[in-house]
Amino acid sequence: MINGYLLPVAGFGLGREFMAFVNLRVLFVLTSVGFLSACAFSPTEGISREVTVKTAGADVVIAGPEGFCIDERTTDQSRAGAFVFLSDCAMTENAGPTIARVPISAVLTASVSNSGLPGIERGRETALADLQGFLETPIGQASLGKSGNVLTISVLSITRTENAVIAFIEDTTITTTTAESPRFWRAFTEVGGRLVALSATGYNRSDPEQARIEQIILAFINSLQAANAG
Question: Could you tell me the pTM of the whole model?
Answer without folding.
Answer: 0.81
